[in-house]
Specification:
Mean pLDDT: 89
Number of strands: 0
Helix content: over 70%
Strand content: under 5%
Number of helices: 4
């Protein structure tokens, strides 16, 4: 039962990572940013990214960077969580 639960959570994390990756790709194409797919991607992934954005906004140097580090931090945190889940099995 525990194994199935960990597999389910891991699959959900993978789907979220895929959606975040899709959101990043969509951000490169301005004509796609107002589509319903982009709105869905934003709606699903923004709650994951927002806490990291709020945390990183406290650092002025990071705020001035042209790249969104909160997105990268959220993606890495999801991957770290997924790895922790797998390591808890062994």
């Amino acid at each position: 039962m525990t194994y199935l639960l960990i597999q389910l959570v891991s699959t959900i994390i993978r789907i979220l990572e895929f959606l975040m990756f899709a959101r990043a790709i969509f951000s490169w194409f301005p004509q796609m940013q107002n589509s319903s797919i982009a709105e869905f991607l934003y709606m699903v992934t923004e709650p994951i990214i927002l806490p990291f954005r709020s945390l990183l906004d406290h650092f002025r140097g990071i705020r001035m960077m042209p790249i969104d580090l909160s997105f990268l931090c959220a993606f890495l945190a999801l991957e770290f969580l997924r790895m922790l889940l797998y390591y808890s099995l062994y």
